[in-house]
Amino acid sequence: MKLSVKSDYAARAVLSLARNHSKGRVMKVEELAAENGIPANYLVQILIELKSRNIVRSVRGKEGGYLLARLPSEITLGQVLRCIHGPIFEADAASEPLYPPELREAWKKVQEGLDALTDSIHFEKLAEDGAAKRSMYYI
Amino acid sequence: MKLSVKSDYAARAVLSLARNHSKGRVMKVEELAAENGIPANYLVQILIELKSRNIVRSVRGKEGGYLLARLPSEITLGQVLRCIHGPIFEADAASEPLYPPELREAWKKVQEGLDALTDSIHFEKLAEDGAAKRSMYYI
DNA sequence: TCACTCTTAACGGAGAGTTTCACGCCCCGG
DNA sequence: CCGGGGCGTGAAACTCTCCGTTAAGAGTGA
């Protein structure tokens, strides 16, 4: 099972926005794309999905761009992943009537555990970690 | 992110084998396939992968078939998933030099957590749960 | 030898994921 | 009020993995 590029792009974009959140600066799509090596036109679609889930916010017109819709401490990796991929561990065959119930429960348990795990990682911490690591080079 | 049918098939097949493990009975591919609604010819490929990872064992010739290679208590859902899918949460872009290290670590943390979670579910328990649930209908 | 089973490799359709393109819309400054 | 610079949206093209099928090979017991 591979983490799709799309959710990786989404996570990187949100991280970039989290870094600039304290400055209150809006970031253009081009900026986000160049900074993370993401195709700009693809990133637009991702940002729209993130916006519909109230993770980012957009400002139109000249001087427009994107910023976080909420505090970095309120945005988790799990929210971003579920926004892009829906339920993270979904066995669609599990709805069949003759499907072994014990397995269905096992999948559900994994799903819930994964949700809890990814929701424990929020972007405030990620942005801080990145800043700390980067500042070490200046000591 | 969807659980692929392939790993679902694998889990169901191993579960069937776990149920019959105490009886020491071998199961033919056709049997496993019919019992779980899996295309037989596809299941063969899955069983071969499971065999190469020492999860199941095969007996050739007439009266041949498949059985577990180890005790049901020693086989976990995580082993089956990793056998089919490799590392469960792999961000291949994470090896790029300019990739944010804090994100790379976050993915790693998720991966390790998921491995621990899926390895905590072994097939002995699953088979018991299924048997208990089925016996309730006979009370 | 024959019947039965697993073993292995190769093929192709279907569908999702990725990327690009074109055009419409909205807001601000002049 | 109008035009440029940004976002918004949908659709087409392309790639690639997944899923399933087919067919020929090889081991085992009767």
Walk me through the structure.
The structure is a homodimer of 139-residue chains. With 139 residues, chain A is mainly alpha-helical. Chain A has a domain at 5-87 and 123-135: Arc Repressor Mutant, subunit A, CATH 1.10.10.10. Chain A has helices at residues 5-19, 29-36, 40-52, 77-85, 101-119, 123-135, and strands spanning 56-59, 65-68. The first copy, chain A, has a two-stranded antiparallel sheet. In chain A, a hairpin with a 5-residue loop joins strand 1 (56-59) and strand 2. The radius of gyration of chain A is 18 Å and the shape is elongated. The relative contact order of chain A is 0.15.
Mean pLDDT of chain A: 89
Q: Figure out the total of helices of chain A.
A: 6
| Category by helix and strand content of chain A | mainly alpha
CATH class of the domain at 5-87 and 123-135 in chain A: Mainly Alpha
Poorly predicted tracts of residues of chain A:
none
What is the overall silhouette of chain A?
A: elongated
Helix-strand sequence of chain A: HHHEEHHH
Major beta sheet summary of chain A: 2 strands, antiparallel
Q: Give the assembly state of these chains.
A: homodimer
Q: What is the number of E strands of chain A? A: 2
Q: State the distance separating the first and last CA atoms of chain A.
A: 40 Å
Classify the beta-strand content of chain A into a percent band.
Answer: 5-15%
What's the architecture of the domain at 5-87 and 123-135 in chain A in CATH terms?
A: Orthogonal Bundle
CATH topology grouping of the domain at 5-87 and 123-135 in chain A: Arc Repressor Mutant, subunit A
Our Rg estimate of chain A from Cα atoms comes to 18 Å
Physical arrangement of strands within the biggest beta sheet of chain A: 1-2
Biggest interface, residues from each chain: A-B, 43 and 44 residues
Can you tell me the CATH superfamily of the domain at 5-87 and 123-135 in chain A?
A: Winged helix-like DNA-binding domain superfamily/Winged helix DNA-binding domain
Helix content of chain A: 55-70%
